[in-house]
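Researcher: I'm preparing a figure for a lab meeting and need a structural model of a single chain. I don't have an experimental structure, so a prediction will have to do for now. The sequence is pasted below. Please return the structure as C-alpha cells so I can convert it later.
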Amino acid sequence: MTTLAFIGAPGPMEMMIIGIIALLLFGKRLPEVARSMGKGIVEFKKGIAGVEDEVNRSVYSSESTSSSRPLPAEEREEVTAPKFEPPASAPQSPASDQA
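Model: Understood. Here is the structure written out cell by cell.
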C-alpha cells in the first residue's frame, strides 16, 4: 500500500476497483446516477452558500447600522481637538468689582 492510502486518497488501483464495482451495480444507469449525484452536489453547495450569506448579512448588520464598511482614509474627516486660546483680558479680582 502507498502512503497516500493511509491519508485517505485512493490510488489508481483502488479507483479502478471502485469503477468496476460501480459498473457492475449500476450498468446502463451509471451516467444517470452520476448526473443526479452532480446535481445533488451543486444543490448542496448552493444551500451552503445561502447559509453563509445569511450569516454574513446578520454579522455585518449587527456591527454597524449606518454603513456596512468603514470609510477609506481619504474620505474620513480629520478629527482635531479644539485649540486653546488664552483670554483677551486679564482676570478680574472679586474685590475690584465691589468698589
